[in-house]
Amino acid sequence: MRRGWTQAQLAERAGISRTAVTAIEGERLVPSVAAALALAQALDLTVEELFGSAGSGESAETWAWESPAPSAKCWRAEVGGRTVLYPAGSTPMFTPLPDSPMPGPSPLGEETLVVASCDPAAGLLASQFASVTGLRLLVLPRSSRQAVEMLRDGLVHMAGLHLSTGDAPDRNAQVVREILGTGFQMLRIARWQEGIAMASSARLKSVRATTRARLTWIGREPGSGARQCLDRLLENRPGPRRFARHHRGVTEAVQSGWADAGICVQLASAEAGLAFLPVQEECYDLCFPKSFVEDRRLKAFLSVIRSAAYRTMLSELPGYSCLETGNLVEVT
Q1: Same domain, yes or no, for 34 and 179?
Q2: What are 155-167's pLDDT values in tens digits?
């Protein structure tokens, strides 16, 4: 305020996103060491003058979402300089057993990488990451927009999104800029096929025939790649009244007879033994802040993603292409 700067001007001088400045001012995000140093340097202050010294008595732990009980089991991870607690049992996760419920710092927190993503193959990646690096990968199932919002709020290290298609190749970056601003990078994990899953007994042989038939659809929430695809198929017709939280939820609804069809990635449909009609190829990327690039967890993650073993495993999954796996793009 003394300098007459806007948040955007401060963000530009510090080399971080305006959204990050807003979140730090509102105490919704604890800045990384790199971000704190950059802000202090931009304002010609020390980190202590800008943020205060340690030992202020404030809790360094925060729950990622409401906990069922203060002593509930949880996972712990260090994210942006604070310990984030993730309640166990409230949502499916690809992870080892929860940490001890005792309060206080956990050495596992600095060994844990947290990703919000709806990739049904994330469990394979978590296993590979643990076996190769000795570190832990915690995967929170979230839609594309939900994942980016968690990254904005400082609750995860990386956010997965698959909104880019052949018709809109820059859509992933557009959503990142819209929600986060600049100062982020995107790591290409795969291109995959998304389409219509339905019972193997269905006699519909084309996408056009499926959209014209009177089917009960299982949907996904707005902001998800599957919902984007379904809205495009149904055009101006009313959307589904029932919703699933992830790709496997879509296939479970079809398997159980709650719905005739739904949109999901080909892997989830194949695992469920359902018929699949491909609709579009999508780019699946993981977004993370540039300030995170020197973290050893990210460096270890990149080495696994770019390894021949992981790329081979990924290419053998139905609907996955790994030709661009490991490519990095800066969001500008």
Answers
A1: no
A2: 999 999 999 999 9
